[in-house]
Task: structure prediction
Amino acid sequence: MNTPTNSPDFTHLDSKGNPSMVDVAAKTSTHRVAKARAVVLLDDSILALLQDNEIKTRKGSVFQTAIIAGVMAAKRTSDLIPLCHPLGLENCQVEVHINAQNEVVIDCTASLTGKTGVEMEALVGASVAALTVYDMCKALSPNIIIKETRLIEKTGGKSDFRLSE
Result:
C-alpha cells in the first residue's frame, strides 16, 4: 500500500498519512475572500411561480430562506467538515438570481482577516443555500437538479485564484 508522506498535495495528512488539522500558527494574518457558486436547475412548473425574481411557496419565500440558510451554514462550516478550522467570519453574503438560461445561480462570498482561507465556508454556504432551494421546491416537482457547486475565486492567501469564465 502506498502511504502518503509530507505531500504538499494533501495538506490534511501528517507524515504517517493520518488525518491532521493544518497548523496555521506560523502564518501571517491577511484579508481573505472566497466566492463560491451553486447552480440549481428547476422544472418549468416551478419557474412559472416566479414573481419579482422570487419563488413563493407555502413554506415561504424560497430565495430569502436560502440566503439565510447559506449564511448560517457558512458560519458552521467547521462543525460540518472534519479538520476545518473554526473561523469567525467577518462577512458572508449570499445572492440568488435567475440567469438567462433560467438557472438559479447562488453566489456565496465569505471574508475575514486571518491565517487560513474561507473557501470551505463559501462552498458550504452556496451548497446549503442550493439544498434549501431543493427542499422548499421538492413538493412542486421531483425534477430539480443541483447542477454544480464550485469555487469562483479566492484572494488573500498564499495564492490567489479566479475561475476564467
About this structure: The beta strands are 30-41, 50-51, 54-57, 60-61, 91-98, 103-114, 145-155, 161-162. The longest strand covers residues 30-41. The helical segments are 44-47, 62-75, 77-80, 119-137. The first helix runs from residue 44 to 47.
